Amino acid sequence: MNKAIFTTSVLVMLGSCASAFPYKWYGVDPARGILLGKTEVEDIPLTTCQPDDVQKGKCAVLLIEEFERLRTDYATLKERLKQCEQK
Fold it and tell me: How buried is 43 (Cβ within 10 angstroms: 0-12 exposed, 13-18 middle, 19+ buried)?
């Protein structure tokens, strides 16, 4: 499967699942050297992740399974907090 098609598919899948997840996230298209935002306007160059003297790790990478677990944990904790506040 073409990397760009795979990356786009992943991005679309994440976009449909993560609408309530308030944090910024990107797909990756290494062939074109960009991080894919929710829209083309939000795309940023992959070079943004290059380390410098101040910050050695500018980007974090999660596989789909880990991202989904993080998103699910966030939703669960948000619901539990709401329940605690109602007591």
Answer: middle
Task: Identify the CA nearest to 58 among candidates 82, 87, 35.
Answer: 35
**34 pLDDT more than 80:** yes
Element (H, E) at 29: strand 27-29
Contacts of 14 (CB under 8 A, 6+ apart): 25, 27, 64, 67
Position 29: which residue type?
D
Q: What is the pTM of this model?
A: 0.60
Please name the amino acid found at residue 28: V
Q: Which helix (H) or strand (E) holds 82?
A: helix 64-86
For 61-71, write each residue's pLDDT tens digit: 889 899 999 99
Torsion of CA 37, 38, 40, 41, to 10 degrees: -80
